[in-house]
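2024-03-11 09:14:02 INFO receiving multi-entity request
2024-03-11 09:14:02 INFO entity count = two
2024-03-11 09:14:03 INFO echoing inputs for audit
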Amino acid sequence: MHLLSRSKWPAFVGLAPAFLIYILFAIVPILISFYYSVMRWDGFTEMEFVGLANFQEALTDPIFWQSLKNNLYVVGASVFGQIPIALFIALLLNRKIKGGKFFRTVGFMPVVISTVIISLVWGMMYNSRIGLFNQLLESIGLESLTQNWLGDPKWSMISVCITIIWQFVGLYLIIFLAALQNIPEEIYEAARIDGASGLKQTFYITLPMMWDSIIVAVILCISGSLRTFDLIYVMTSGGPGHSTEVMAMYMFEQTFSSTRYGYGSALSLFIFFFSLALVYLSTRILRRKSV
Amino acid sequence: MAETAYRKQTNVNYQDSRLKARKVSKKTLIYILLLMYALMNAYPILWMVLNSFKSNTEFAENPISFPATWLFENYKTAWETARLDTYFLNSIIVSVIAVAVTVLAGALASYFLSRFAYKWGKYMYAFFVFGMLIPIHATLVPMFLLMKNLGLLNTHAGLILPYIAFNLPITIFILVSFMKAFPKDIEESAIMDGCGVFRIFWSIILPMTKPALATVVILNFINNWNEFSFALVLINEDALKTLPLGLANFAGQYTTNYGAQMAGLTLAIIPTIIIYMILEEHLVKGMTAGAVKG
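2024-03-11 09:21:47 INFO inference complete, emitting structure
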């Protein structure tokens, strides 16, 4: 097709730097995971081949199941918390109002702030003695509702999820705003002539027209939630009593605190395949819907 | 007659003003909702900044409003004990080098993947983009051992290399889709003028790719600047810690001095907020382009 296609060596030279780094530091580690996952190894003594024992152990490990359950809890809270709120705010912002840019800027801000900082600030807000929430409740005379937000297993997961929802609403808000801007104005004009009211327009035109973006947002939301680690690590380290343990956190503990490299690798692979399966599943759904 | 006309007119006026009133009240409601959302977004940060000026006792008594006396002591403590300057410097070194290499190597690879019709090009592209599906936590264990064997634990390079590797997929994904849209005869005329492949890349393709490059630079920078997991596993020497890691560490040491903790966090967050405000427009454009296509 191209005059340039005749010579091949420049392509090899051009692709080499990216390819080498990518292979060495992204692909090779995943492959090594497979090797370690069939070993029992504490990092010091001799490695021992144990076959699929690590995987078997994971499947019967109640804490691993607990962490998987908590991961799915985060996924659910994110999908049903972030997406509807973001959609609602995006619909409000899509009107011709003054200060739209201001709300957009403030809305996206939490997304760019480092998760570690967010976790530390929210951790202090949840503090049972001097935290914002308990002080607020006390100041309006609702002492009875004060909680040990992060220290009580009944509340810890809810508290963590509220922070996660807060952190990422802005991301989906921006995606939805972009989708809304792509809907041609003429459609609304035609609808107005036919006498469709504002709410009807929203349900029969706007939402169907941005359905693809909503599904993309859901996929991003699912795969993002499965990777939750920093926030849990800083806020609760998985506690109290494994009540906020997620898969990545448990894997980290098993590997680096209990120095069980083999078992940690097996857990890593579970996370990897679980993510792949979920992304595959969601793209399947996406394809069916967009036809 | 005149009276009925007048009545009709006032009636119309009345209905008109009622409609207007309804419109105004609807707008007010929208503004109230949006302001509530903005407040909910900004308040945690504001709360942190305000309380960074309070003593521990004042913070305990009065955690919500403005400080009675503005205490700058906390900032002194934070700056002196948190080693923020060291962490800043480490974060800048690691982020800048990783971004520069990722974007340059990524752009070069994207050029060959998008502008040439090699048979294996398609597979190569798919292979790169597949990287977006690898959760980085699944690679922490082998990465730690790999870096240990390479002698790169506790070095800047030990962080920079994985940052490059894990940012290449999204970089190539965005750049390839951008470069593909260029018209096909761009290179042909350059060849007639005697340009080589790399000359074309450097003097023609790269300048044309500027808008996408800006997006990719910003995305990469945010990713690297805020990255935590690799830093946690690959760095344990205090002098080499990046900002997120250093902050987590600092907060762990000063669990009871809330004022100093919040002063440290405020100092750490200022550059992010400034850069964000400057680049907001660009960042949002890039985010939407990447996300909607993805």
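2024-03-11 09:21:48 INFO post-check: Residues 62-93 of chain A form the longest helix (32 residues).
2024-03-11 09:21:48 INFO post-check: Chain A is about 75% helix and 0% strand.
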